[in-house]
UniProtKB/TrEMBL annotation, chain A:
One of its GO terms (cellular component) is plasma membrane. Signal peptide: none annotated. NCBIfam families: PRK12573.1. This is Multisubunit sodium/proton antiporter MrpB subunit. Residues 7-130 form the Na+/H+ antiporter MnhB subunit-related protein domain. Its main location: membrane. It comes from Fontibacillus phaseoli. It is a multi-pass membrane protein. Keywords: Cell membrane, Membrane, Transmembrane, Transmembrane helix.
From TrEMBL, chain B:
The chain crosses the membrane at residues 6-28, 40-61, 67-89. Keywords: Antiport, Membrane, Transmembrane, Transmembrane helix, Transport. GO terms for cellular component: membrane. GO terms for molecular function: sodium:proton antiporter activity. Belongs to the CPA3 antiporters (TC 2.A.63) subunit G family. It is a multi-pass membrane protein. This is Multisubunit sodium/proton antiporter MrpG subunit. It is found in: Membrane. Pfam families: PhaG_MnhG_YufB. InterPro entries: PhaG_MnhG_YufB (IPR005133).
Amino acid sequence: MKQNDVILQSVTRVAVVIILTFSIYLFMNGHHHPGGGFIGGLSTAAAIVLLYLSFGIEKVRENIRMDFKKLAAIGVLIAVGTGMTAVVFGKPFLTQAFDYFNLPIFGETELASALIFDTGVALAVIGTAVNIILSISEDR
Amino acid sequence: MSGSGEVIGAALILIGAVFSLISAIGNVRLPDVYTRSHAASKSSTLGVLCALLGTLLYFLISDGYFSIRLILGIFFVFLTAPVAAHMICRSAYRHHVPLAEGTVQDELKDYYMENENMELDSEDQIDVTEIESKPLATD
C-alpha cells in the first residue's frame, strides 16, 4: 500500500532546517549562555531521526552517507585529542586555553579550546543517539 | 515606558491562557477523536502563539531585548502543531476509530475504500466499550 505523505514530508523539509539551525545556535552559544555540545548534538540527532521517520530509513541512508558508529568514535578521539594537546605543551591533562582574535567578519572574537572539546562531545552524542535509534529499528 | 510593556504582555498572555483553557474544556466535552483534535490543535496553537507573542513584546518594550528564539518558537509551533493533529487524525481513521454518534456524512470513506484497498471487517473495528470494560492486566 503506497502511502500519501505529502504534508508530513514537506513540513519536515522546513522543520529540519529550523531544527539544525537552532542546534548550531545552541552549540555555539554554550560558552556564555545555556547550551553546549550535549544539547546541540541531541537536537541534531532529533532532526536526523525526524528525517528517518518521515522519509524512511533506506532513502535517508542513501542521502546521508555517514557511518554513525565511526562518527561517535571520531568524536571521542577529538575530545581526548584536545586533552592530550595540553599534555604536549607541558600542562596538566584537559587544560583549556582561550584568546581574543580579530576575525574578518565577526571582529574581536573569543576563541577557546573548549569549543573543540565540545565539538567532540557533540559528534559523540550524535553518533550514539542515531546509532541507538537505527539499531532498534532494524530487525537484526 | 515599562508600564505599557507590562500591560500589553500581560493582556496577550491572559488571552493565550484563556484560549488554552477553552481548548482543554473542548477536549473534555467533545464526543470523538476528530472533534477533540479540532479543539486541541486550533485553539491551543492560538493560545501558545498569544503567550509567546506576549512574552516577546514584554521583553521588547520593557527591556529592549529582541529574542529571536521566541520568533523561531512562534513559527515552529505554527508550522508543526496542525501537522501533528493531521497525522493523529489520519492514523485514527486508518485504525477505524468510530465517528461521533450524530455524524451524517463521511466523504473520506468512499475514497478510502477505493484507493487504499482495506477491508472494513467488523473484527478490525475498535470497540470502545470493550476496551473500557476490560479489566487491567495484573501480574
